[in-house]
Amino acid sequence: MTTTVVPLEYAPNGASARKTKMEPKKSIARFFKKYLFEGQRFHDEGNEDGPKVVIPEDADWMERFALNHRKLLGFCLPLMFMWTWWWIYAIKHNILALYPYRYAMPVTMAFGSFIGGMTCEGGGAIAFPVMTLILQINPTIARDFALMIQSCGMTAAAATILYMGVALEWHSIVFCSLGAAFGIVIGIEFVDPYMSKAQKKMFFVSIWFSFACALFLLNTQKKRKTYLRIQMFNWWKAIVLVVTGFAGGVLTSFSGSGVCVCSFSILTLLFSINEKIATQTSIILIANNVLVGFFWRAKINETISQLAWEYWLCAAPVAALTGPMGSFLGSFVHRQTLACAVYLLETVAIIGGFIIVKPGIGLTIACAAIVIGGFGFFYCLSKIGIALLRTYPDEKQKNIAGLNAEAIQA
């Protein structure tokens, strides 16, 4: 009788045991790679593996360096510009002396601008509830500060995005920015003055929570088809974007942030744009819109309070650093990671709003109506978006191929 000795590494049981031991490590590695290191999408990429940087043969050392290190330069150049003018101004006017009294907002914006640059939320989505709910600052001052600080943080983040060449939806940038410019001016002049402090606080957290619900709805659609740009763009889609921008501008007029919510929702739910593309596009829109609002409040109304100016001067260098940092890191992570951050932030915000503001029965009903109505609106958008998918050329070809295969089998 001959006995065959099988080495452990080749034995089925041994292999199974070894595989079992390796699975937890592999699964953890896959988890981190998928949700935190997914990779970026660039406007000049030929495929999903990444951009193909073409360096001319006659390029000098500076051009080669710029092409090979555009990610690093995209992060550093806006920061260097912002910090240069800030340090010159701070030294001349002794801004450092304000920090013992105005440190709250620099600390807040270290987190707020990072989240604003990483997600579709602007930094104002963090600054406004912190100032109004926790610090009990007048909502008008909080709104002005949100516009001002995003003019640094989100503009720096936008510069990083543009320099890096990250893929964007340019139809939305052009038409939403047009509508948002009119919306924020009309909102500042004719909407904001007629809202109470409690209404501004609670409407803000309610609208953002309904957006979080819409994002959750979006992510329940498994293996949905997404695009890098709006398909079959035409006149009615341009009008939708203008109206979307206008609504976002009005929301920004009393809360300092809003066009990002409207743009992201329309792009993802109605036009099936990839969430990462919609997020980066929203950052460009925020930067455009807050600059308009900042200019209007500072140069036309001339009513920005001294407190808002002091908070802004102290928080500007922080936002200029963390905004591009969030944008840079956010372009790598998975869309589900960004979505989970939004769920958490908006849940905390609306719970905190009800605890701190303690709204009356009328305002509570209004907030509930906003959340329920907003969710219903976003649900309808998602259904229309699914219907639109069937009209796109690639989906039509897929359906035709499926029908032909069925016919051949029959």
TrEMBL record:
GO CC terms in record: membrane
Primary localization: membrane
Subcellular location(s) per record: Membrane
Keywords linked to the UniProt accession: Membrane, Transmembrane, Transmembrane helix
Superkingdom of the organism of origin: Eukaryota
Protein's UniProt keywords contain Membrane: yes
Membrane topology, from the record: Multi-pass membrane protein
InterPro entries in alphabetical order: TM_pro_TauE-like
Ranges annotated as spanning the membrane: 72-89, 109-133, 170-190, 202-218, 238-270, 277-296, 308-330, 337-357, 363-381
Pfam family of the protein (one): TauE
PANTHER family linked: MEMBRANE TRANSPORTER PROTEIN
Name of the protein this chain belongs to: Uncharacterized protein
